[in-house]
Design goal:
Elements: E1 8-13, H1 15-20, E2 21-31, H2 35-42, E3 52-56, E4 59-63, E5 84-87, H3 90-100, E6 105-115, E7 118-128, H4 131-158
Antiparallel strand pairs: 1-6, 2-5, 2-7, 3-4, 4-5, 6-7
Amino acid sequence: MPKDTTERKVVATNRKARHDFQILDTYEAGMVLSGTEVKSLREGKASLVDGFGQFYNEELYIEGIYIPEYLNGSWTNHAGRRRRKLLLHREELVKITRKIQDPGYTIVPLQLYFRDGRAKLEIGVAKGKKEFDKRQTLREKQDNRDALRALRERNRSAS
């Protein structure tokens, strides 16, 4: 399936999720938002750090995401942390449901962005990492950095 060439305007990224979890699958989901939430997102304000996905009545909702109140909003303003419905195809919901039935698996938000004027949330089915896994990942990153640095130095001295 060809990738979309449309541009993403990233609002928020959950870097902590990639550190704390091993991401197995990713999905792009639409979100049901109110008008003031969209305006607040267009200002580039959001936090995905404490977010998680949960099923209610066979529908997927995301909780813990913080979208601050819109400053110019009136009595129609939204609550900062509320449960928001995700829009996915039925087949995707069935796949996600099967995957998270095993213990240790969860749904985490990875990135919030606009595509073609619509707010999208990239979610991932993830398994929590143990402390030694996190240290191993950091060690591998550091080793790769050191190897690239050594190659760069060697190439500079050769020319």
